Amino acid sequence: MVKIDHIELPDFPLLLAPMEDVSDPPFRALCKENGADVVYTEFISSEGLIRDAAKSVMKLDIYEKERPVGIQIFGANLDSMLRSVEIVEKTNPDIIDINFGCPVKKVVSKGAGAGILKDIDLMVKLTEAMVKHTNLPITVKTRLGWDHDSIRIVEVAERLQDVGCKAIAIHGRTRAQMYKGDADWGPISEVKNNQRMHIPVFGNGDITSPERAMEMRDKYGLDGAMIGRASIGYPWFFNEVKHYFKTGEHLAKPTIAQRTEMARRHLQMSIDWKGEHLGVVETRRHYTNYFKGIPHFKEYRLKMVTSDDPKDVFATFDEVEQKFGDALIPKIG
């Protein structure tokens, strides 16, 4: 069993990563149904929360069926972060997560996200203050370091643990790498193997198959996997990993009809939560993966990502279902 503070999780839990414009309530619900053990919200600006910005406040929506659920916030100003903790507490999440890993320029330029990796003392100070400011468990998501020459993640993780951080998720790249090159899980394993570490250490980055998840567990010895891009438009990924762990075999891939039904549900849930326009527009990023690998699919995909009227998108789903039915996507090669 793995524990984040008092929260009990199964051995080697699978966590849905916080992803901007992806990890919203509809998608989190689908991932939870399909095996995710913990889900996290999109990251939320502490400055946006204290200004009561509509987009930031909307991201606080969480539902009972998602639990355990973490709300992730980012920022570099101590007062703003503490005030945002007070706002977040009112929504009663299970976990508050701090984003010390986002590599995007507009976040980093303000010293937030991965930008704070250039000031480890401030990173530790912020974490300690937030731990003292709430009874909810505080966790951290970060990267190996700012660049290759400044990787101090073993020391950083230990310092965060020592000020009360209850779990750490580490992406196996530096900020300088962004999402290029291969994720390096070696330094994350070094964090886990530090005899002074007793909090869960989760790995993130390039977990693209059940085999890779097993490698993270068995070769690198980590406590769990935080799944990001592999789940976009493919919430089945979590159960596929669990099935592989249990049996050593691959779970049957969803049929095109099952993919269509999942996309249909996803769109309807998004419309119910965000309204028609945002629901249609912000679900488009998932369709490539929902229908990846189907031959001669371009015309259908084009309709899905260019139609602004949900009726047209639903009609396209119906067309796909009628044309392909229960067929499986053919294997390539």
UniProtKB/TrEMBL annotation:
InterPro entries: Aldolase_TIM (IPR013785), DUS-like_FMN-bd (IPR035587), DUS_fam (IPR001269), DusB-like (IPR004652), tRNA-dHydroUridine_Synthase_C (IPR024036), tRNA_hU_synthase_CS (IPR018517). Its cofactor is FMN. Belongs to the dus family. It comes from the Bacteria. NCBIfam families: nifR3_yhdG. It comes from Asprobacillus argus. GO terms for molecular function: oxidoreductase activity. Catalyzes the synthesis of 5,6-dihydrouridine (D), a modified base found in the D-loop of most tRNAs, via the reduction of the C5-C6 double bond in target uridines. It catalyses: a 5,6-dihydrouridine in tRNA + NAD(+) = a uridine in tRNA + NADH + H(+); a 5,6-dihydrouridine in tRNA + NADP(+) = a uridine in tRNA + NADPH + H(+). Keywords: Flavoprotein, FMN, NADP, Oxidoreductase, RNA-binding, tRNA processing, tRNA-binding. Signal peptide: none annotated. This is tRNA-dihydrouridine synthase. Its EC number is 1.3.1.-. The gene is dusB. Gene3D superfamilies: Aldolase class I (3.20.20.70), Putative flavin oxidoreducatase, domain 2 (1.10.1200.80). Residues 15-316 form the DUS-like FMN-binding domain.
